[in-house]
Every structure is written in C-alpha cells, then in structure tokens.
UniProtKB/TrEMBL annotation, chain A:
Residues 25-140 form the Thiamine pyrophosphate enzyme N-terminal TPP-binding domain. It comes from the Bacteria. It holds the Pfam family TPP_enzyme_C. Residues 414-561 form the Thiamine pyrophosphate enzyme TPP-binding domain. Its EC number is 2.2.1.6. GO terms for cellular component: acetolactate synthase complex. Belongs to the TPP enzyme family. The keyword Metal-binding applies. Keywords: Amino-acid biosynthesis, Branched-chain amino acid biosynthesis, FAD, Flavoprotein, Magnesium, Metal-binding, Thiamine pyrophosphate, Transferase. The gene is ilvB. This is Acetolactate synthase. The keyword Cell membrane does not apply. SUPFAM superfamilies: DHS-like NAD/FAD-binding domain, Thiamin diphosphate-binding fold (THDP-binding).
UniProtKB/TrEMBL annotation, chain B:
GO terms for cellular component: cytosol. Gene3D superfamilies: 3.30.70.260, ACT-like. Chain A, domain 2. Pfam families: ACT_AHAS_ss, ALS_ss_C. It comes from Persicitalea jodogahamensis. This is Acetolactate synthase small subunit. Belongs to the acetolactate synthase small subunit family. The lineage of its organism: Bacteria, Pseudomonadati, Bacteroidota, Cytophagia, Cytophagales.
Length: 585, 180
C-alpha cells in the first residue's frame, strides 16, 4: 500500500489526473488542487483558526508547492506582489479570517492600483455563523470590494474548482489585479459531492478585455504620429505587463521618437539607449517634464496619466494631440482626453501600429532634450555624484551599486527619497528590473517584495533599497528571509528622517519639521538577531568595499549606509505646479 | 443639472448592488433613484439608476467604471429623451367625515390616477407617470393632506438601440489571448 504522500505524488505526476480526480475530496484539498492546476509553485501565507483545514491539506502537498510562512500578512501580500512582478505569474496569499484578512488589505490596495495579479485565499467563519459577529469574523467581501478586481465568497466545497478557475482568469486577464476568495470554514472541511474536475476559465460573460485593438483606431493613431514634428512617447507599466519591450523598441527605433518612462515603466527601455529620454513625473528628468509641454503629439502607452506624472493636469500637454494606448477602457479619457484612443494590449497595439509609421529621426527635437539634459547634469547629477560632503549621498550609493551590478540587478525600492534616488540613479540595462510601490506609495513594501521577487526568480540578483522609516514598517520579514536562506540583499539608506516628508516640510511648510525625525534602532544588531548578517557603512572610502561585501554574500545581507541627513531630491515638480515648471533646485 | 438614466445589466449574484453603488459613493455622485429587477432573461438583473449631473464626461467615466465590475454584462447611459420611463407613486389620503370630498373624476380623468384601496378613513391612490407628472398630482392632492407618499424610482427602456456610451461586448470580435 502506498502512503498518503506517495499517492499524492503519483497523482500529481500525471497532469490529466491532476485536474481530475475520481475520489471525493474536501474543499481544502480542492483549493490546493486548483492552485496546482494553475501552476502555482509558491504560496505566501500565515495560518489561523478559520483557514486551518486548508493548512491541513497543504501538509500533504509540501513537495509540490512551496508554502512560505511570513511574519505578518502584509508581508505575505507584498511578497506575492514582488513575486508576481518579477515572475509574471500570479502571486498567491493564504491567510486566516478577521485580522489575518485585514492585515492583507494594504497589499491588496497596492496590487490593484499597480495592476499586479494576485489571488488571495482568505479563511472565513463557517456559513452558519456568518453575520453573527462570530470570533474573527470580518466582512472581508465588503471591506475589499473597492480594492479588488473581483471578490467572491465560497460557502460550499463544490464551488471551489469553478470559483478558483475564475479567480485566476480574472487576476491575469486584461489589466491584471488582485482577486480575493473568502472561503468559509465549512466549505474547507466538507466533502465535495462530486469528483474534483478543474476546467480552466478562458472567458466570462461580463469580462472580456479587448487585447487586439480596432484597426481604425490604430490607423488614426498612426496618422497623428506620422504628421508629428515633435512627437514624444511615454510608456508605463502596461508595456512590461504586456511583455512589449521589444515591440516598443522597434517602434522607437523605426520612428526616432524620443521615449520616456513612468516610475513603473522603468527598465523597459535600457537607460543607455540613444532614444531613451529619461524618467517622467514629480522627480523625473528635467528634459522629459519640460518638453512634455512642447511636443506636438504625445503618445502614452500602458499608463494612466497619474497625477505624479502630469502635475497640474489643466496645464499638461495642452498643445499636444494625445494618442493613448491602454488596455483598460476606463483609463482612456479619465485624466487626459485622448484624440486617438487605442484600447488594447500594448504588444498587440504596437505590432499593428509600427508597420504603419514612417521612418524618421527627429534630430532637432532630440537636440532639445540633450540641451536640457546637460543643464540637469550640471545642476544636479554631477554635484550629487561627486560630492565631498562629510556624509555619503544616496545618489552615490545607488550609482555605485548600478556600476557594480552592471545595471542588471533587480532593484526593489521602498517609498520616499531613497525610492526617487533609486529610480534616478540606477542605470537599468535589463528589462523587468525595477519593482516599487507606485500608485499607493506603500512604505514597508520593499523588504517583503524583494523577498517575493527573489522567490519568483532566484537566478536574478535582487537588491532592496529601503529608507530607515520604511524598514521599520515590515522589519519582521527579516525573519522570513532568514528562514528561507535566500540571498536577498537590502540596503538601508539611513538619513535618520522620514526624509521625503521632511523635504516637503522644508520646501513648502517653512521648515517646520513636524514629527519626521526618528530615533532608530541598531539595524545591524536587529538583523543579526533575526539571523541575517550585515554591517554599517558611514565613510565614503568604505562604500565600495561595503557594496562588494554585500553583493558577494551568498546569504541574505543587510547593508546600512549612513547618508546625509537633510538632502533634497531634485528635479522636482512641486505639487500643483505644471510639468513645465519643474525646478532644478 | 441633467438627468441621466444608467441601465446596468448584470449577473444575478450576491453583493452586486454594493459593488455598483460604491462606484457612485467614491465619486460623490448622489443616486436619485435606483431599481433592480430580473430581466426577460433568467439570471440577468437590470439596475436602473438615475443621477443628476452637470457634466456628461463624469457620467461617461462612471459608466466605464461600472463596466469594470466583472459581473456586469453591459452598461448604458441615457439622456431623458432617449428613454421611455415611468415611476409609480402611492398616495395615502385621509377621508375623514365632513372633509372636502375627493374629486375622483378629476383624479381619474385629468391626472390618470386610480384609487387602488378604499380604507375606512383613507384611500390609497396610485399614480403612474414621469417624475413631473407625479409632482403635478402631488400638488393637486396636497390640500387633502397626505398621510404617506412613496415613489418607486424610475424604470426605463431605451427608445433605440443606440445609447450615450456603449460598451456592449461584441463577443465574436474579441480575441482571448493568454496572459503571456
Ligand atoms: C504607510 C505609509 N505611511 C506614510 C507614508 C507617507 N510617507 C511617504 S515617504 C515617507 C518617509 C519615508 O521615510 P524613509 O523610509 O526614511 O525614507 P526617506 O524619504 O528618508 O528616504 C512617508 C512618511 C507612506 N507613503 N506610506
Ligand atoms: Mg529616511
């Protein structure tokens, strides 16, 4: 007789059998079978009362799916996001009801605004207790309604296969996003009344994202672009999500159109590409922001014209005709009215569009960018990188890291000045190399997301760049990282301040520093306590060796760099200002 | 302010009313009336939502947001002249002894309203019509005193198949490509 584990192994080997079973199983086994059928190899989770039957089922499948025990459900959420962002697969979280679920909320909100595919399976009290204020009962469906792409409550085991298939379809399809499945305890433990059979979901009556755009819309866009004297192309996360980096380069190289990236688009075009003009938005480049208001055709691809990109939208690219290529119809005309909207997947759209475009070089137009770039170099970049200040500057750390990793590492930035500096000074040479919380600006994102990213692609060097404030929001995930042993590298850029808020207080609130100075712990001692090695660097002459030491480690490693306390990130489009009013100081 | 009628066709599942109304709440759009019923097709519900809005653009945006709800099959936004619409109102009017008699003939002939219940001390009058017609009748009947008054909210069907914002899927034309 085979042991239970051997049976599972035998069953799992045969994909036909995997998706179908003659035996009756309980809802929990069905949940795991559904995950396996969807190709899930990793679950980020945390157990508790209302999800115990599923945890009991996982016990049987430990050889087939890697469950990672986090230290806080928010960590599970961000880890799943980091995993999804780097691997392109759906991130999966498993948590208990009530506080387990509410701890996940921040990550779900983060995932929806940054279009990150995620399936969260959340325990719930038994069906007969719903609505009775039972122990750890929270109306998670109600709470997550506005922050999920779809949510659903399963109350009987038989529903599991169909609902799980739908969950994965919705999470991935079109513009990706988080899906939450609330599963009552009885549905987890009761037996299904029919054999498990998993049919993948490919479409739904009410949800069919348009991937291939309408030809006439693409043609209208092509006409506008071909007629442009000073076209400017902006790309966002949508390009990466569509895997359209190659198609984007083809368009740009054929037409000679300068292109610039949103925060989440970074690394989709290598920074040393001659047609790459830079980064957009509040702390983006001088030329890209200024010239947004001088181009005659603005082509936005896979982005949503976030207010951090547009500045004062009433003074944003008013002179330009707008082409907007976007998969989510609700984003078209939402912020910026498009003269030529193209609804569809970026890859499909670019494949159709590029052949219709005329070759060009736009030399004079490029020269304008170069001129402004030189001003920025002079005013900001050079001084930042060749500082002789007493303390190290954030920019130096990031640029040195960039050089040492040849611009090929995956950078996971947290939220604040260090994030902006990471985006500015890391010279991305490889696609899909920048992960950060863009839309929600979630402090505490980076450590768990970097861990998740490393799990998602262990071959790549993953380096988190984290502020001293942010680090303390999810510091406990050092435990998760230590337990995994994965060589996740983290750099704390420690300025002893909630630096970004301090910068605003300095610039816009008459330097009234209101609750932004931190009394920090000894980060290295804490890391060691968790079993993560690390050291502090506070001298410029030690920086290079410090980075080498961190990068050479084959274990998790924390490098704390003491940086200048009161440096400001520039350029900056002050809030309420127009992109044309970007300041260099 | 312009009245818009938004018709939403959905799968009939739990919580959809919430999923739709929070879209208005978040954008601070006040719902004037809302009715839900099953359509001629089983399992498909129809929401009729009336809002008053200055800007057509706002309405178009909200329509597109509603369209994003996975269970929503189609959404249409209409101007008043693009729909045939009505409401029902019930008026509970006291009929104490010695009071001015109700002029049933005027109620019936002029206002096309009908007494649907005769109580000992009151009658219930049903009036079907547009919001304006109901309001007219309200003013007419008011001097009698109104014990209770309730309106159903608008139900509407479009006059043509064309609508203000149209996102009805043309099934065959969509390609289902996989994520990668
Ligand atoms: C959860 C959360 N709380 C508050 C904020 C507001 N906020 C944005 S940046 C920032 C300061 C971050 O400080 P630190 O991590 O030290 O980074 P620095 O700006 O100093 O590089 C704060 C408080 C936020 N984005 N997220
Ligand atoms: Mg700081």
């Amino acid at each position: 007789m085979m042991t239970r584990e051997e049976t599972t192994t035998a069953v799992l080997k045969d994909p036909q059998v995997l998706n179908e079973s003659t035996e009756l199983m309980n809802g929990s086994h069905a949940v795991i079978r559904a995950l396996l059928a969807e190709g899930v190899d990793t679950i980020f989770g945390y157990p508790g009362g209302a999800i115990m039957p599923v945890y009991d089922a996982i016990y049987d499948y430990q050889d087939h799916v890697n469950h990672i025990l986090v230290r806080h459900e928010q960590g599970a959420g961000h880890a799943a996001e980091g995993y999804a962002r780097l691997s392109g697969k759906v991130g999966v979280c498993l948590v208990t009801s009530g506080p387990g679920a509410t701890n996940l909320i921040t990550a779900i909100a983060d995932a929806i605004i940054d279009s990150t595919p995620m399936v969260c399976v959340v325990g719930q009290v038994a069906k007969h207790l719903l609505g009775t204020d039972a122990f750890q009962e929270t109306d998670v469906i109600g709470v997550t309604m506005p922050i999920t792409k779809w949510n659903f409550q399963i109350t009987s085991a038989d529903e599991v296969p169909e609902v799980m298939a739908k969950a994965f379809y919705v999470a991935r399809a079109g513009r990706p996003g988080p899906v939450l499945i609330d599963i009552t305890k009885n549905a987890q433990s009761e037996m299904m009344t029919k054999p498990f059979k998993y049919d993948f979901c490919h479409k739904l009556p009410g949800y069919h994202p348009r991937l291939v755009p309408k030809r006439e819309h693409v043609e209208a866009a092509a006409t506008l672009i071909n007629g442009a004297k000073r076209p400017f192309l902006l790309f966002g996360h949508g390009v990466k999500l569509a895997g359209a980096e190659k198609e984007l380069l083809e368009l740009v190289e054929k037409t000679g159109i300068p292109c610039a990236s949103t925060l989440l688009g970074l690394s989709s075009v290598p920074v040393n590409h001659p047609l790459y003009a830079g980064w957009l938005g509040m702390h983006g480049n001088y030329s890209t922001n200024r010239l947004t208001n001088e181009c005659d055709v603005l082509i936005g691809i896979g982005l949503r014209f976030d207010d951090r990109v547009t500045g004062d939208v009433t003074r944003y690219a008013k002179q330009a005709k707008i082409v907007h290529i976007e998969i989510d119809p609700a984003e078209v005309d939402k912020v910026v009215k498009a003269h030529a909207p193209v609804v569809g997947d970026a890859k499909e759209a670019l494949r159709m569009l590029t052949p219709l475009l005329n070759p060009n070089s736009h030399e004079e137009w490029h020269a304008k960018f170069k001129e402004l770039d030189a001003e920025e170099e002079e005013a900001i970049t050079i001084p930042e990188l060749s500082a002789n200040t007493e303390k190290i500057k954030m920019a130096e750390v990031v640029r040195m890291l960039s050089d040492k990793t040849k611009g090929e590492a995956v950078i996971v930035a947290d939220v604040g000045q260090h994030q902006m500096v990471a985006a500015r000074y890391y010279e991305f040479k490889r696609n899909n190399s920048f992960i950060t919380s863009g839309g929600l600006g979630t402090m505490g994102y980076a450590l768990p997301a970097a861990f998740g990213a490393k799990v998602g692609d262990p071959e790549r060097e993953v380096v988190a760049i984290i502020g001293d404030g942010c680090f303390q929001m999810t510091i406990q995930e050092l435990g998760t990282i230590a337990q995994s042993g994965l060589p996740v590298k983290a750099i704390i850029l420690n300025n002893n301040y909630l630096g970004m808020v301090r910068q605003w207080q300095q610039l816009f609130f008459e330097k009234r520093y209101s609750f932004v100075e931190l009394q920090n712990p000894d980060f290295i001692t804490i890391a060691r306590g968790f079993g993560v090695d690390g050291h502090t660097c506070d001298q410029r002459e030690n920086l290079s060796d410090s980075l080498d030491k961190m990068l050479a480690s084959d274990k998790p490693y924390l490098l704390e760099v003491i940086v200048e306390k009161e440096e400001n990130v520039f350029p900056m489009v002050a809030s309420g200002a127009s992109v044309a009013e970007i300041r260099l100081r | 302010m312009t009245s818009y009628t938004i018709c939403v066709f959905t799968e009939n599942t739990f919580g959809l009313l919430n999923k739709i109304t929070i879209i208005f709440t978040r954008r601070r759009i006040n719902i004037e009336s809302l009715t839900v019923s099953e359509t001629e097709r089983k399992g498909i519900s129809r929401f009729t939502i009336v809002i008053k809005e200055e800007s057509r653009e706002t309405v178009e945006k909200v329509v597109r947001q509603i369209r994003k709800v996975v269970e929503v099959l189609a959404v249409f936004g209409y101007l008043n002249d693009e729909v045939v619409y009505n409401e029902i109102a019930l008026f509970k009017i006291p009929t104490p002894e010695g009071a001015k008699r109700l002029d049933i003939e005027t109620v019936n002939k002029t206002y096309k309203a009908w007494v649907v219940y005769w109580g000992l001390e009151y009658v219930v009058i049903e009036k079907t019509g547009t919001e304006e017609e109901i309001f007219d009748f309200f003013n007419y009947i008011k001097p009698h005193g109104i014990l209770e008054f309730v309106r159903s909210g608008r139900v509407a069907v479009s006059k043509s198949s064309r609508s203000l914002v149209e996102y009805l899927p043309e099934e065959e034309k969509y390609d289902y490509l996989s994520y990668n």
